[in-house]
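Progress against Task 2.4 (sequence-to-structure conversion) is shown through the following example record, which the project officer requested during the mid-term review.
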Amino acid sequence: MSIVEIPLFPLRTVLFPGGFLPLRIFEQRYLTMVRNCARNDTGFGVCLIREGEEAVSPVKTAQVGTYAQIVDWYTFDDGLLGVSATGTVRFITENTWQEDDGLFRAQVRVLPESEASQVPEAYSVLSDVLGRFMDKVSDNYPEYTPDLLQNSLWLGYRLSELLPLGGIEKQHLLELSDPIERLQSLVEILPRFQSA
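Structure tokens generated for the chain above:
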């Protein structure tokens, strides 16, 4: 796997491949980054902030992140730039540093993705749960069709991002390389959200 250099956007959220990421951009370093991404038709890496406050202190980010591609931009009523991005592939950072303008950059290696398989019967409850989510949020997923509820990779990623989990828990789900292992983790988590 070759190593490439990309700009990083540390956030308090975890982006998954195929996921939807709306952003409000107000810091100059990120305005410049978005402008460069739009000009060069490139994207940026999103990594979870593990320690620190991004705007005021040095931060420590998770090593595994997701490459984001900008799909739309717009201006909010308050004049701030809005960006919609979509997660594409997972990566692992080999080296990170901060430029003079404050922008983080990293050398990253794309992580291989397992083949998507049919969702095993034991995890069909997850397909049902995601189907209910999709009734409400499918506009954010233009590629969505009901067939994707039976795709183990897509199902695991979508539930991982849509369930109200903490950042560290979502990060763990992102880092799993086996889609079935991710579904097993989600099945174990699900009872937390079922009413007694």
